[in-house]
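yo, Uma2 family endonuclease is done. seq:
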Amino acid sequence: MTAVDERRMMKLFENLDVPEGIKIELLRGNIVMMAGPDVVHNDIVEAVVDQFPRKKWRRLQTQDVALPQESSEPQPDLVLVERGSGPDSGRLMPPEVIRMVVEVVSKTSVDHDYVIKRSIYAAGKLPIYLIIDPIVAHCVLLTGPIGTGETADYRSQSIYKFGDPVPLDQLDFVLDTSEFRTLADVRRHRRP
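structure:
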């Protein structure tokens, strides 16, 4: 994609009139639309948000992330930024202030969360990417981003079953997963 094509795509993306209940993201120049999340999904995000004290953290939901080098503006389920960091207004959060992004997997987002966003977030040098998967009842903790473009990845990957604590050493924090529930009647996948 040329620079002119990227600018056109960004302009189109920014000006789309999206119906309520539809989530939209720009992932490597592709506009991706998904239905709104399941209650299980929202409960998991809420359980994570509740654990991070508001006085120390900005716990931003539906916050777009600026990753222009990737032609991407993903919208993670949760963006964690230290209080006092980042812009006070605007649609895009710069990657250099983000401490962690969280994605909760849905039945339609498996490949996006495990493959596409994994390389996008690694290329954007986001230090912690936490995938919470209510389909297979585990969390995948990714740290140490390396590389560029589609081959970017994380040096470290650890998997924790729901109910087990997830040590977020870079944040000096342990995430309690005991409240996380699974999605009913969804076909299991084989990721990560």
